[in-house]
Amino acid sequence: MAQGWTSDRPPFHEGELRIQERVGVRERTEIQGLRVIRDHLPDQHREFYQNLPFLLLGSVDTEGRPWASLVAGPKGFIQSPHADHIQLNTSALPGDPLNQTLQDGTHLGALGIDPATRRRNRFNGKASQVHAGKFDVVVDQSFGNCPKFIQTRDVTYFDPSESASTPIVRDASLSNADVVRTITAADTFFIATAYSDGSGSAAMGADISHRGGKPGFVRIADKNSILFPDFVGNNHFNTLGNIEMNPQAGLLFIDFEKNGLVYMTGKAETIWDGPDLDRFEGAKRLTKITPTKIIITQNTLPLRFKFGDYSPFLTKTGSWWPGARRPF
After folding, report:
1. CA angle 215, 98, 290 (to 5 degrees)
2. Residue 324 has pLDDT above 90, yes or no
3. Which residue, among 291, 234, 284, has the nearest Cα to 268 in the 3D structure?
């Protein structure tokens, strides 16, 4: 099967191109994108996904709000019968907005990540054949990601039916103690964004990305918003490009202590300069999220994580502390 981008339409949309132009990488990123972005999954990506115990998904609800989600299962719950096709034999977790957003035709961004090896790959597409306990994704775009800023962890799946703990799902705010604890201790989270102009281009739709940093790299800036740095990446600017055109985002934090998740969706803003940016070593930009809805869960995550070590790339990044305003 042909490698690289073969469509007559460009692999990037207007918002991504704007950001690439702003930071001076548009020309070389276009050349790179035509080489590494595909309309199918390479065989090594298909094998990679089929060995994962979880997958991250980005979707949009009926109100146009992006959400980041996690689905999980035993090894082999992800299958790829064809290069343009993924089958997931699983359901959304209790409390996950994916329970409402997932239906035939739903635009999905997908991120596969193996924390133990720091390997990650991404694709986006549309849901199909959605049934209880399984659904498919038809691939529009796929590409690999570098291992930067990923903390190593061993991940083990367990059957939730064997757990004696009762799942807890509740609405929350940035003042909730569990939300504050999970966010301010985070060294990893995931961000979903979306944009479509209705053209049907493969460059449109939902996206989900990984973000990693030293514990505390996400700051609760005030009672209504959070702030985090944007480090050097692959220069595609999928996330910031979507925010440029549609200033909304969904974030997902893993609560390792209570085997749950913190979901949030809200307004998103890219901050290009100012004192907050100046004080964070290694940050090229900042992203500010003002949540409009937060959901927290406990005892819903059928995964166990054992921490390994921090990314060596973090030695070149700073922290909000000391000198930054501490969380409320």
Report:
1. 50
2. no
3. 291
What is the pLDDT, as a whole number, of residue 228? Answer: 96
- Rounded to whole angstroms, how far apart are CA atoms 87 and 92? 14
CA dihedral 252, 254, 260, 262 (to 10 degrees): -30
Using DSSP's 3-state secondary structure scheme, residue 274 falls into coil
Contact 118, 124 (CB under 8 A): no
pLDDT at residue 287 greater than cutoff 60 = yes
Low-confidence winner among 4-8, 136-140, 147-151, 262-266 (lowest mean pLDDT): 4-8
Residues β-bridged to residue 264: 251, 294
* DSSP-assigned letter for residue 199: S
Q: In the chain, helix, strand, coil percent, each to 5? A: 20, 40, 40
Phi then psi dihedrals of residue 54, to 5 deg: -155, 160
Global model pTM greater than 0.85: yes
Provide the pLDDT for residue 214. 93
Domain residue spans in the chain? 14-316
Assess whether pLDDT exceeds 80 at residue 105: yes
Q: DSSP of 222-272, one letter per residue?
A: ETTEEEEEE----S--HHHHHHHHS-EEEEEEEETTTTEEEEEEEEEEEE-
Class of CATH domain 14-316: mainly beta
